[in-house]
Specification:
heterodimer; A: 113 residues; mainly beta; 52% strand; B: 114 residues; seven-stranded mixed β-sheet; four-stranded antiparallel β-sheet
Chain lengths: 113, 114
């Protein structure tokens, strides 16, 4: 069965510091991988996605993620965090047919000035 | 282009009642998926509709049902509400049934069952 693990429930970083959010997945083949962000009272917004090819993908808002097949990981990074990045971040796995996602439990990011 | 809209945004119901939530996808999108988001269980897939047919269903009891209309608008219904059904219900729309097409999420309907 597919599963997604985000081991960090909550992370606090200082504004301007770098950020890495961890995501590990369990799936028999190479899945489609996604990172979404959810601000309070909002739906989910897609940050970036990986289907195939270059394992380092660039997304919106200065985020990037790297797919590492050997570690079954898809960690999200940002070199310099802004206060507006404070939100909940979800890693998701998708299958190659249909539109069902398997989501991780999310990582809540707090940014301190 | 207008985004995914969900109505109502907030809803308070009593145990045992039923509720219907509505989702209007982005124009031209034919796939609508529903998710339940709770603090304890996170985001869980409910079902997916495409061209008025349910294509995929998550592991939820039969009290949860849905449908899709010819204009791609979708509704989900929860009968005999339980306290545990309190959640944010999100819908997402996509042009096709493949994840190479981005799914766009609505703001959700916050359901509180008392």
């Amino acid at each position: 069965a597919q599963s997604v693990t985000q081991p960090d429930i909550h992370i606090t970083v200082s504004e301007g510091a770098s950020l890495e959010l961890r995501c590990n997945y369990s799936y028999g083949a190479t899945p489609y991988l996604f990172w979404y962000v959810q601000s309070p009272g909002q739906g989910l917004q897609l940050l970036l996605k990986y289907f195939s090819g270059d394992t380092l993908v660039q997304g919106i808002k200065g985020f990037e993620a790297e797919f590492k097949r050997s570690q079954s990981s898809f960690n999200l990074r940002k070199p310099s965090v802004h206060w507006s990045d404070a939100a909940e971040y979800f890693c998701a796995v998708g299958l190659n047919t249909g539109n069902q996602f398997y989501f991780g439990t999310g990582t809540s990011l707090t940014v301190i000035p | 282009k207008a985004g995914v809209t969900q109505t109502p945004r907030y809803l308070i119901k009593t145990r045992g009642q039923q509720v219907t939530l509505s989702c209007s996808p982005i124009s031209g999108h034919r796939s609508v998926s529903w998710y339940q988001q709770t603090p304890g269980q996170g985001l869980q897939f409910l079902f997916e509709y495409f061209s008025e047919t349910q294509r995929n269903k998550g592991n939820f009891p039969g009290r949860f049902s849905g449908r899709q209309f010819s204009n791609s608008r979708s509704e989900m219904n929860v009968s005999t509400l339980e306290l545990g059904d309190s959640a944010l219900y999100l819908c997402a729309s996509s042009y096709r049934r493949t994840q190479t097409y981005e799914q766009y999420f609505g703001p959700g309907t916050r359901l509180t069952v008392t």
